[in-house]
């Protein structure tokens, strides 16, 4: 199934719907902590749209031709805003992407890849030398997609989010 998608910045009227989608997606990942185990993380997911109010931060959404919300991702032009554990926030000349989520009914239609590629294009257009991201073992589908896009494991970016191992990746950009 291939969808005709529009990728754009989130609108305030979509904040709540994207937050609900993200909580639903992440809470159903096999092997990922439940909301009761990491309430602060799920609070951030529920309020994902508000991240677009931070400097150099953009929440992108994928929508269908008729405006249905398919998924979202957060793009960071400044790694100081990235907000993860580990050393990623200290990376220079880098953009970051976090919190990719796609509505399960649209999985396999290319929305996750389209969202990630939109972030990579933005990073390239802004002259960044690399893109940084993190994922977990529970996010196997995303992990495989990131590798197909050219991201390479970067163990120096790994960290623990409470008891959850989080794995860093880099994509070097040719400018």
The CATH top-level class label: Alpha Beta
Structural class: alpha+beta
Strand content: 25-35%
Question: Strand-and-helix sequence, N→C?
Answer: EHHEEEHEHEEE
Q: State the CATH architecture.
A: 3-Layer(aba) Sandwich
Kindly provide the radius of gyration, computed on alpha-carbon positions and rounded to a whole number of angstroms.
15 Å
Characterize the biggest β-sheet: 8 strands, mixed
Percent range of helical residues? 25-40%
CA-to-CA gap between the ends?
Answer: 33 Å
Q: Report the strand count.
A: 8
Explain this structure.
The protein has 175 residues and is α+β, with helices and mostly antiparallel strands. It is 26% helix and 29% strand. The chain has a single domain (5-172), classed as Gcn5-related N-acetyltransferase (GNAT) (Aminopeptidase). The protein is built from 4 helices and 8 strands. Strand 7 (159-161) and strand 8 form a beta hairpin. Helix 1 (15-27) packs antiparallel against helix 2 (39-46). It is globular. The N and C termini lie far apart (33 Å). The model has no long low-confidence stretch (mean pLDDT 94).
């Amino acid at each position: 199934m291939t969808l005709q998608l529009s990728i754009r910045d989130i609108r305030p009227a979509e904040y709540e719907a994207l937050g609900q989608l993200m909580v639903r997606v992440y809470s159903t990942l096999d092997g990922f902590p439940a909301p009761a185990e990491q309430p602060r993380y799920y609070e951030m997911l529920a309020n994902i749209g508000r991240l677009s109010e931070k400097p150099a931060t953009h929440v992108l959404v994928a929508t269908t031709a008729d405006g249905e919300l398919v998924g979202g991702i957060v793009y960071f032009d400044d790694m100081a805003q990235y907000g993860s554990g580990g050393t990623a926030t200290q990376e220079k000349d880098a953009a970051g992407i976090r919190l990719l989520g796609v509505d399960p009914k649209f999985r396999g239609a290319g929305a996750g890849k389209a969202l990630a590629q939109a972030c990579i294009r933005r990073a390239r257009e802004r002259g960044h030398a690399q893109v940084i991201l993190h994922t977990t073992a529970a996010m196997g589908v995303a992990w495989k997609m990131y590798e197909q896009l050219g991201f390479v494991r970067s163990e120096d970016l790994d960290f623990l989010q409470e008891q959850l191992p989080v794995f860093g990746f880099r994509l070097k950009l040719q400018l």
